[in-house]
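Fig. S4 source data, part A: sequence.
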Amino acid sequence: MGADLYLMSLHEPTRRLWEPRFDAAAAERDRHEPGTPEHERWQKWVVKCYGKMYGAGYFRDPYNDLEVLWRFGLSYGATTFAGSSISRRSGLASKYPSHHGQTE
């Protein structure tokens, strides 16, 4: 479980640049039999293009000790649920502390 976070001002220009290259590489790869040197060569290019496509402005927030927001003393759950009627009724705010390992 986690969240895919995009800074669109960074992500979109990079995605627009690399997505056509990714699509072309995938199409060329698919023209070759799996396991052949040609297929493997194009697969490497597909992986490179995919990495470039998501290389700027994309972050994966895993909801664990590696969570980006926890590093800044923030929490998606606390921000989303804190103070809401759902939070008060369900107790979710206490399950999503604003700092890792602490409750508000």
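Fig. S4 source data, part B ends here. Residues 65-104 form one domain.
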